[in-house]
Amino acid sequence: MIVEVERYDAVSLHDLKKIADAIIGRMQQIKVWLLEGDLGAGKTTLIKVIGEALGVRDTMSSPSFAIVNEYEAERFDRVFHFDFYRIKSEAEAFDIGVEDYFFSGYPCFIEWPGKIPSLIPPVYATIRIDIENESQRTIAISVHDGQEENGV
Asked: Contact 140/7 with Cβ under 8 angstroms?
């Protein structure tokens, strides 16, 4: 069940830093973050800004071919970044042990989560990035509490 939704307009790097701070403020309770949006919407860019705010010193990039990148961070010790765009089935993701990552207690950022719907843990947040125009994005963050919509 979605328990909360926040919306932001982002037109600058400064805006992304404020959004990253809002996301980081929720990371004690929420470890799994799904990023949705079209190609080029800015999913990886937002993850890089979040990583920078967490104290990741390595250069962050999309794990398009590796599927997962692990980074050391000053806050939370490690951060995992997944990109499932190229996988052909959930079995591929399962075989690399995604559940171990998702339940590790470390922040996980997942691009193209629609490729692995049954592997997503019950408590997570979705970051939806929509392109308004060349320089503006709308970012909506929804928190999912693990309860079914019918209250079960």
From this structure: yes
Q: Give the C-alpha distances (Å, rounded to integers) separating 13 from 8, 94, 125.
A: 13, 35, 22
Q: What is this structure's pTM? A: 0.89
Q: What is the pLDDT of residues 86-120, one digit of tens each?
A: 999 999 999 999 999 999 999 999 999 999 999 99
Q: Provide the pLDDT for residue 146.
A: 79
- The total of other beta-carbon atoms located within 10 Å of residue 128's CB is 17
Name the CATH architecture for the domain at 2-145: 3-Layer(aba) Sandwich (3.40)
Sign of CA dihedral 11, 12, 18, 22: positive
